[in-house]
């Protein structure tokens, strides 16, 4: 009986205490047949202007596979590009699919904890690593991050206008063209830094009223909840970096919705970790996304694979010059949603040839001053 049980155990795959059988099983196990040798050979950065400056990272490998990423254009855009170039020597010769290892190398070995420029550079590099990993595997990146949990991605766009009436008309036009179910706007009028605060407050109310009358009735239950929570931020996070800062925000109950920027917070895997922390605090994620079409696509992969995603900021890519940044067709919102691609990697190729006709332009945020002449926060 004992011998029979022993034979049954071996037949079922058990190998405890049976080194010969175990060795035989290991030898017959399937082996990885993809690209076992894949090494980074170069890291390039392109600074281009298509309405604003964009910072693109291209990582090449010895197998002819390359990947693209987008870093946040922080203001000192040349500084972000220089940081990407400085990181090059830490990346060349490494396997680009070891994303966690390379991310930790860049983040941990920078002399001090990274701020705006360093984290933007790391984010752009991280995107490119995932693009390579997806192409090498023949899969969309979201399939390497848990697969899809939705079939389309809800988006919204910012409406603008100098007057309340112009704001309302712009919002209606955007909804008619792209079918949005949500709209974002700045309540304060243009030039509000130089206006008396009571005038700014009145103008903000007029703009909000015009927009509300133009796009539909308010949800009173939601407004009551907003009023109850008004002493603390409702949505925030576009200027925070990495899981460490978001952990502090969420553990203190600082937001109902977080808005990490995938080109600044550390990349798509770091944003997945941020979203997981948010999920444990019953908090939704609405990514900040003011940059180019590649940033939008990276966010689509994030949204596709993240359960507590709610909505994505969006800027249409169906017109030049933004459209020229990408080879082929871009994904355009229909009925307020974006389709999820099924091509390997991100599913886009950047138009490197077009970059030559898009030189970067110097940019600085316009200053604002208080009544006493001191620099104000903007």
Verbal overview:
The protein has 378 residues and is α/β, with parallel strands linked by helices. Among the domains are: 40-138, Enolase-like, domain 1 (2-Layer Sandwich); 144-162 and 177-185 and 219-355, Enolase-like C-terminal domain (TIM Barrel). Helices cover 39% and strands 12% of the residues. It has helices at 2-11, 19-28, 77-91, 99-108, 116-137, 164-178, 197-215, 220-228, 242-251, 268-280, 293-304, 352-355, and strands spanning 40-49, 53-61, 66-71, 152-158, 183-184, 235-236, 257-258, 284-285, 312-313, 337-339. Strands 4, 5, 9 and 10 form a four-stranded mixed β-sheet that branches. The N and C termini lie far apart (81 Å). The relative contact order is 0.13. Mean pLDDT is 85; it is low at 1-33.
Architecture blueprint of SSEs:
Elements: H1 2-11, H2 19-28, E1 40-49, E2 53-61, E3 66-71, H3 77-91, H4 99-108, H5 116-137, E4 152-158, H6 164-178, E5 183-184, H7 197-215, H8 220-228, E6 235-236, H9 242-251, E7 257-258, H10 268-280, E8 284-285, H11 293-304, E9 312-313, E10 337-339, H12 352-355
Parallel strand pairs: 4-5, 4-9, 6-7, 7-8
Antiparallel strand pairs: 1-2, 2-3, 4-10
Helix pairs in contact: 3-5, 4-5, 6-7, 9-10, 10-11
Contiguous low-pLDDT stretches (5 residues minimum) are 1-33
Task: Give the CA-CA distance, first to last residue.
Answer: 81 Å
User: Oligomeric form of this entry?
Assistant: single chain
Task: Return Rg in Å.
Answer: 25 Å
């Amino acid at each position: 009986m004992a011998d029979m049980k022993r034979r049954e155990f071996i037949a079922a795959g058990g190998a405890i205490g049976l080194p010969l059988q175990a060795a035989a099983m290991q030898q017959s196990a399937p082996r990885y047949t993809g690209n076992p040798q894949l090494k980074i050979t170069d890291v390039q950065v392109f600074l281009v202007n298509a309405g604003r400056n964009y910072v693109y990272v291209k990582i090449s490998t010895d197998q002819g596979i390359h990947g693209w990423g987008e870093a946040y254009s922080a203001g000192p855009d040349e500084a972000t590009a220089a940081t990407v170039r400085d990181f090059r020597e830490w990346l060349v010769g490494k396997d680009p699919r070891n994303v966690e290892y390379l991310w930790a190398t860049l983040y941990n070995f920078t002399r001090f904890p990274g701020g705006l420029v360093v984290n933007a550079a790391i984010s752009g590099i991280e995107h490119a690593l995932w693009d390579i990993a997806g192409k090498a595997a023949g899969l969309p990146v979201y399939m390497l991050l848990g697969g899809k949990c939705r079939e389309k991605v809800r988006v919204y766009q910012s409406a603008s206008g100098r007057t309340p009436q112009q704001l309302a008309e712009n919002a209606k036009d955007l909804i008619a063209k792209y079918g949005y179910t949500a709209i974002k706007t700045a309540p304060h009028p243009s030039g509000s830094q130089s206006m008396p605060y009571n005038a700014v407050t009145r103008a903000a109310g007029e703009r909000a009223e015009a927009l509300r009358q133009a796009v539909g009735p308010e949800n009173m239950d939601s407004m009551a909840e907003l009023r109850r929570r008004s002493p603390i931020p409702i949505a925030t996070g576009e200027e925070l970096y990495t899981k460490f800062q978001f952990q502090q925000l969420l553990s203190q109950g600082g937001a109902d919705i977080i808005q990490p920027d995938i080109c600044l917070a550390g990349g798509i895997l770091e944003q997945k970790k941020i979203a997981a922390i948010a999920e444990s605090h019953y908090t939704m994620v609405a990514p900040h996304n003011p940059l180019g079409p590649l940033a939008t696509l990276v966010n689509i992969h994030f949204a596709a694979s993240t359960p507590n995603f709610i909505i994505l900021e969006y800027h249409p890519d169906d017109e030049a010059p933004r459209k020229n940044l990408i080879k082929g067709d871009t994904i355009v919102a229909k009925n307020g949603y974006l389709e999820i691609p099924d091509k390997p990697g991100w599913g886009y190729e950047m138009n490197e040839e077009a970059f030559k006709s898009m030189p970067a332009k110097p940019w600085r945020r316009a200053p604002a001053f208080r009544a006493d002449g001191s620099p104000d926060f903007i």
